[in-house]
Amino acid sequence: LVLYRTATLYYARALAYANLGAIDPAREEAQYFETARLNPEAQNRILHNNVVSVLLAVDSEMLKGEIAYFSGEHQQAFSYLRRGVELQDALNYDEPWGKMQPIRHALGGLLLKHDFEDEAEEIFRADLKLHPKNPWALAGLIGCIKKQVKKDYTRSGFDSDPKMEPCCRPQETKDDSNSNKSTEICDLKNLLETQRQLEWADFKITHPCQCCCPPPGVLKE
Fold first, then answer.
1. Is the separation of the CB atoms in 212 and 64 below 8 Å?
2. Radius of gyration in angstroms for the set of CA atoms belonging to the chain, rounded to a whole number
3. 3-state SS, residue 207
């Protein structure tokens, strides 16, 4: 357990540095994490239903993805994060989950940020099947559908008020899919609002992952 805790501390520090744009310290902490992760003892230790080395392998892909992203290597970052999702899905069933933070939130959020909203939509829908009503996945899915509706209106030649919620806009196209998307946005927003009114929901969620909204000046375009 001490090995796992040590690796997790390095992992958290590396993620924090990466999200602050401090890439060199992030890589240094990531190297410490990898040293702990590759300790042969990690293969002999079990945390609930999963082997520690397997759990840390999930973290490794997430960490490499975050560092690559904030270094400006976006496509490489997406590849790491996709691999992290695969590894996370392959974990043995556990309660609570073997890894509490779904990597899909970071992957979907960053894809959405770079206008890959269709793939991001698939990711958030898959996450909601595993974690129903998860507020971060709901926020991500809302963002995906909003962007799709906005692009549909632009392609159709209509100039709707960008500040107006898609579900409040007049149905200017003959495409029923646009109407369905606008209705789904409203339904999802109502679901998210209801979820955030629960007793333990003590802060507002606007993005699927904090890495989607880092401090100003951090991202390398």
1. no
2. 19
3. coil
